[in-house]
Amino acid sequence: MSEPPPGPIATTDYGPNRPVVCEHCDWRYLYPAGNSPDLCPHCFAGRLMPFDPAGGDPGHDVAPELMIPFTLSAEELERRLRQFVQGIPFAPADLKVRNLRARRQPYFLPVWLVDAAVQARWRAEMGFHYDVVSHQDRFEERQGGWTSREVRETRIRWESRCGSLERTYPNITAPALEEHDRLRQQLGEFPHEWARPFDTVAAAGRGWRLPGRSAADAWPDCLPPLMEMARDECRRAARADHVRQFQWTIGTVDRNWTFLLLPVYSTYYRDDEGVPRRLLIHGVSGRIAGERRSSPRRAGRVSLILATLALLLLLLGLTGLLLGRSIDPLLPVGVFSCLAGICTGLGALYPLVRAWQFNRRPSAPPLS
């Protein structure tokens, strides 16, 4: 069956919108003319430059139909940013809430939704619970002989079933980006029930990432969740408790595609080498995805200060020990200073070790 076009077709000149591409990471966006940021909101390392889309590029001839609006409040965003910054030992000097807040860039990520009307034949083994009652005999010396108790065991009876299926499954998510699954794991789900028709006023001049995958290319990713929904529906129709070896043969499937935009903020901080470390923020829940990095440079400065203090204490202690031979009150002062210098010297290693351990801990992979 021929597939209907995925969404309404936009004009070839994009109306008031202009396609731009990052010269560093090659992410492509569509922004209202004159409203695109200077730096790419994905990598914050390259500038956005106008480009002419090649014919047949995925998503370039499709206009968004739905959008989930930004609903994250300023107070919740502030709380989430502070929560992200807190607890990082020897945080980079650039990692401050005010910097993250000032650099944030709102934009939308694309995703396909498909309503699939399926006609199929299926075959599976359905499992039904049944109880088996038996008796166990046990010799109980305290009770003076053998006792018997009832044992009830739940087992599964498997029966082969087959049938036909004619159903419509709405709003199946299909990835419009290669990074879709990773972003979903890091940011969480978006409430599709909050989607509203797209319009430029509701978008407030924000741009969106152009899809990297066409609807036809994304369709195979819909088949596993579609099969899982059909599998569970057949189980419930058979009033079974379990299902296994589910197989189906799709006869026809009609697909109605919708282009949906998901709200996100991106911001960044710079590490010791000046490399931008990007954070991606869920535009509804405020969940943050990104690396929390300690600064070995700041830890090294603290270690150097402690090491210098330890050296001064040792010198003071040695001086006290030498003068203590002739001036008795200086002897205990010299011993105490030497001990304090040794403890401080050992403590000077802590900042370096703490920063190294923090940066090596298991964490979410960086956003590429």
What does this molecule look like?
The relative contact order is 0.18. The strands form 2 sheets. Strands 4, 5, 6, 7, 9, 10 and 11 form a 7-stranded mixed sheet that branches. Strands 3-1-2-8 form a 4-stranded antiparallel sheet, with no helix packed on it. Among the domains are: 17-117 and 165-212 and 254-291, no CATH class; 297-360. The protein has helices at residues 74-85, 97-103, 180-187, 200-203, 215-237, 296-323, 330-347, 350-360; strands at 17-22, 28-32, 48-50, 66-67, 105-140, 145-175, 196-197, 208-209, 242-270, 276-282, 288-289. It has 8 helices and 11 strands.
Key structural traits:
about 375 residues, alpha+beta, four-stranded antiparallel β-sheet, 8 helices, 11 strands, about 35% strand, disordered N terminus
Fraction of residues in helix: 25-40%
By secondary-structure content and strand pairing, the structural class works out as alpha+beta
Multimerization status: single chain
- Mean pLDDT reading: 86
State the major sheet.
7 strands, mixed
